[in-house]
Amino acid sequence: MEENRRSGVSAIVLAAGMSTRMGSPKQLLRIDGTTLLEIALETLRKTQIQETVVVLGASADAIRQSVSLDRVKVVINEAYREGMGTSLRVGLSAVDPVAQAALVVLADQPFLQASTIDTLIEQHRERQPQIVIPLYRGFRGNPVLLDRSVFAELAGLTGDVGCRAIFGSHTENILKMPVDDMGILLDIDTPSDLESLQEARASAIAYWEGPEPAADRPQLAIVGQEAVAQALVKLGSLLHFTVVVVDPILTAAQTGADGVLHALDFSRLPAAAGTYVAVASRGRFDEEAVEQALLAKSDYVALVSNKKRSQEIVASLKARGFAPENLAALHAPAGIAIGAEGPEEIALSVMAEIVAERRRSRTG
Asked: Which DSSP category does 27 fall into?
């Protein structure tokens, strides 16, 4: 208990969501008879956390009836329909005034390890960064630890945004902490997620999955799971690229790609006649993916994003010492201007730019 008081870190458990994709309150989904929310609370009890604040909203009454909340501080987000940003704001307002930092915990990550939380707390105590983010094989996950110095910036959050809303304005004083805990990436949104994530956690996932590709073919490495990324997989295959999806969990069969790289480390890609990277992850892993692609000296790096996010990432890279010549391969926002609107057209504009870049490099 004395150690908990010294940590000066409060936990904010975000459990106010409507679980639209699940069809029922996912906070109450059970694993071996224990709800996801109870698992999250029990994990926190094993750590150096000083206090736990649980933010409820949708299904608050049902959760209170099913989960013992006696040893935590409960607050209600009446505006839960507006998204995660409002829950984070409500949670921060309830944190102990003397807390030095807050750990933002998702209620649907049952495989998160208590030791990972203690590592984040200890790194904050020793190095005093404003934000601590855990990485597994280079992929950014949750929970995120926030120093009190950034609380004021988050106080005005609205809508369906979380901590990432302030990352762009903090090009310095962010600590990205590698951890050996796949649980930071495993969150449950649908009933089918539970079984697949349990299997992923139980298996030893190699860094590379797939046959050794032909070294005389160009390769297209795609980061992301959304519609644009899926369209890029199809177009890349049609244009005779070796298509590689970069993802910590997905299999080649699930993606339709020739192979999967289970690490955000492009130096692990097989040899090829040119490496072209497309980051289409809608903000997830995007900054880390762009940085690693540039460090690996990829021939071309596409960032599929809006102009504001592109500017944030370029500013962050420059702040960390990337010179203009190092950024020459980066196209942000990516794609030839064809007035693209839907995912398929956006993917087409990116592939057209990749083909043009490849032609220039071969004739130049």
From this structure: G
Per-residue pLDDT of 148-180, as tens digits, reads 999 988 877 665 555 555 555 555 688 999 999
Task: Give the Cβ contact number of residue 284 at 10 Å.
Answer: 18
Confidence of residue 120 (pLDDT cuts 50, 70, 90): very high
The CA-atom distances, in angstroms, between 128 and each of 19, 63, 152, 203, 335 are 35, 36, 17, 35, 39
Q: Which fold has domain 208-363?
A: Rossmann fold (3.40.50)
The pLDDT > 90 percentage for the chain reads: 66
Cβ atoms of residues 275 and 299 within 8 Å = yes
3-state secondary structure of 197: helix
Q: Where are the alpha helices (DSSP H) in the chain?
A: 2-7, 36-45, 60-66, 84-93, 114-127, 151-154, 164-167, 191-202, 227-238, 252-255, 286-295, 307-319, 343-363
Ordered by start, the domain boundaries in the chain are: 2-192, 208-363
CA–CA separation, 277 vs 301, rounded Å? Answer: 5
What is the pTM for the complete model shown?
Answer: 0.87
Give the CATH fold of the 2-192 domain. Spore Coat Polysaccharide Biosynthesis Protein SpsA; Chain A (3.90.550)
Instruction: Evaluate whether 107 touches 42 at the Cβ level (below 8 Å).
Output: no
Q: Which pair of structure tokens corresponds to residue 77? A: 């987000």
The secondary structure of residue 59, as a DSSP letter, is B
